[in-house]
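Q: Entry one of two.
A:
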Amino acid sequence: MKELLAPAGDMECVEAAMRYGADAIYLGGPQMQLRADKAGFDMQGLTKALELVHSYGKKAYVTVNCFAKNSEIESVSDYARQLHEIGVDAAIVSDIGVLAAVKRAVPDLEVHISTQANCQNYSAARVYYDMGASRVVLGREMTLDEIAELRAKTPKDLTIEAFVHGAMCMSYSGRCLISSYLNNRSGNRGECTQPCRWKYYLVEEKRPGVYLPVIEDEAGTAVLSSHDMCCIDFIDKIAEAGVESFKIEGRMKTAYYVATVVNAYRRRLDGTSTAEYCREELECVTHRPYSTGFYYGYEKKNPNNHGEYIRNCTFVGTVLESGDGYLTVQQRNNFKVGQTLELLTPGREAYSFTLSEIIDENGEKLEAAPHPMMKVKIPCGIDANPGDILRRKESGFYEQN
């Protein structure tokens, strides 16, 4: 089994993940889901998401991965039963108390151990397996060699999952107190304000009001601001080490992000596009400078990060329908006649074309589509399907924190 696992923070992301080739998604429910409320579903929304996922013959895993307080343990059993009743394929947990409560309440509900549990050795993986877990999500701090050893020394029916793309935490797999300390919002309770990504200055005691920027060069080190992980060039090595589920980070990300990243990894895993093409696709989402994470150890040097986000493309619209050589598009960002756009559709590489015409709902020709969510028709040389994505390549620029 080789599974591509995508994040889903809302229904639009669920649809994007399914259409662009994810084998499974992970999403939050109404309780204990370790992300802001906007990245979680209520029970009605969760049921709807599961119905869609299962209609594709795919799987959905629900995060129950915050670290529980005494007052919350009693509710875990009822929540686990609700998840089981609506057809959740697995619960993702971090807390061993939650793990025990879930298995007592619903013995046949699969449980996956979250990366928040910091599982980094075969002994810990065996313990979780003995407690009833069917999968462990490894800590991002592990190297390829360490993963291979863990795989060799654990039961074969214990699935190994690892992150291959997305943001990395400055702490051990999210076990961080900076947000709690600075903002009274706990990263371990799903409320992280990401202070590690803020822009910081140094102030010297005897020079109040004089702010010195924290920078990094060949001889120095940045205080915070980790790179993003990107494993597209060596996804085969991760598979060879024994990883069976390749996880994309990003339950707070947009549907455009999910579609683009899932599409790139799907095509790379299937061998339908070159590594070079897939790598270029991953430059089409906003990200921090990419790195190989810890897979090659601490000795692997990555480019310096001065705190910028890199943005090479702009998401400009979603296809509503197609016919007679035209696409009906819902605008998401301004675009105009004469610009070069790209159509990203499942099952094929991006199609580039120069926009020659824009027609509004009244049949009037426009020079631009300036209004958010407006519907327009544009000519395109190929057909598309509802939900396909339009983007515009930029010259590439950096966004400071």
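Q: Entry two of two.
A:
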Amino acid sequence: MKKLFYPLIVLSLVFTSCGDPTSKEYNYAPTAVDDVGFAASDLLTNITVLINDDFGLDGPNSEPISLPSETSASGGTLVVNDGGTFNDPTDDSIDYTSPSKFIGDDTFEYSITDSNGNSSTATVTVTVQDTINPGFTDGVYVFTVTGANNQEVSIKKATLKGPSGALNLPETVENDGITFAVTSIAEEGFAYCYDITSVNIPESYTSIGNLAFYDSSLITDITIADTVSIMGENAFGECKSLTNINIPTGTAHLADNLFFGCASLSDITIPSSITSIGNSTFYNCNSLNNVTIPDSVVNENMGAAVFGYCNGLTNVTFPTAFTIIPESTFYACNNLESYTIPSNITTISSNAFYACSVLEEIIIPETVTSIGSAAFGLCINLRKAEIPNNLTILPDNLFYKCESLKDVNIPSNLTRLGNGVFYECLTLENISLPNSITSIGENAFGKCDDLMNFDLPSNLTTLEAGIFYDCASLTEINIPSGVTSIKKNAFAGCASLKEITIPDGVTAIPEQGFYNCTSLTTIVFPDNLTEIGQFAFGNCYSLTSFEVPNTVTKILPRTFYQCTSLTDVIIPNSITSIESEAFYNCNGLKNVSINLVTPLDIDANVFDFISLNDVTLKVPSNSTSTYKAADVWQDFGTITGL
């Protein structure tokens, strides 16, 4: 067994590799063998890399061993030490100094060359520690000394000649006549070990580090002694073949991502010793079917997305004292067809059932008083939802893209519908809202393709942006008299809407307010309207006539964009400007009446893609000659008096 030497200033370190220098077979070509070992941060370490290398039958050349770079992968410095013998590389070594304050694994390469010029390259992996912490190897594992009495060790990693098949971890190991108790597995100790099929962790062990077996994808069985009290984050993550594992009774916490991606794990027993479960503990365990969480786990100690993407999950039994379903608990559990929320639950957190694509029915008890945003979002097969009467708010995106939702009851004491609450519920046809509702958020009913008739609550004062965006089947809607504000895109894309009455308190039609309302023929405006926004009636193909209210002062850009059936327009004397492309491609236009004595200065593109020669312009009788001389206006085919 090779020893590590730690002088006060310079560390001389013999590294271990999977080769055995006492029984090497000579080759015709040189062979450099990969090495692993330890160094102390910020101190020079002399590395005798040649101890397990072979120069072959031709022997070494007279040049020293070579380095492709004088800097290691992490920025350490490398210098070839010729050992004091000129023209003889066999006693060469490498002086390594870690980057300042660096802790962790560093690597570098070196090459040896025989007398015929043939070369071989190897990689050295240096574990840099924060103190001069002794380390050693038994040829299979690399150990670091831990514990106050220096009588305990942790398995740092397997060597390149490391284990395969069934792994029975040692309880003790000897080095220099000292017997050490093996008590832990360090971070990434057996990560990416693709030859291990099973693991037995004996009673001397108390902890398993983060990522300890990460992506060791052939492991099927792991047995852990109950003495283990700590299992780190992602300790068994991506062990895709793992089917059986016991959770030790000495453990109180299941760490974040502990079983992340264990796709073959179908059954797990959580012992009563467990008091807390971290985030995403069983995330993407696709074969997991039925889980019972013991009563020892309390609400505040259960993380988010614990069962996210568990596509085989059909049921989870919560502790009787639980009152909260945590955030994203069942995120994208695509085998969960129905779920009855326990009567002890009062809160369903955000995204709790998000993207449960086969969930058809959810039964929510009357005990629930709070539901988080998008709790049932993207449940594309959800057909029915019973909402408890104790709720006063439906949060943002609650039923976002629940495209099969047909039946939903709305409690009588509800006060708010959040943003996007029913966005893209494609099959929702009718919904009755109580007058207790005082606010409805943006895009609340956007893209509800089958929604046909709608009575808005009488206490509303604002129609938020996109509230009925792209409701293609909406034919009729009554806007309450108390509404004073309509926001952008409120009715854009309501292709079946034929007529609309704007209440008296509204002073502005918003940008794209009725854009793409292709069936709209009639708009009743309030007396106090002062503004019509850009694209407000763009692509309203069925609009045939329009009288701009005499309280409006500007016709903004593209207000009537591509209103191809518009034949008659009346412009009052209150208008002070008509802006670019206001009537763009209104190619059915026949008559424009404008009650302004002095022609407005307008751009030629106001009437872009319209054959003005076929349009009659009607102006005040005493202004016909002025219009016939004015730019753009003079292009009308006929100019007559009103």
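A: Comment on entry two: The first helix runs from residue 624 to 629. Confidence is low (pLDDT under 50) at residues 1-26.
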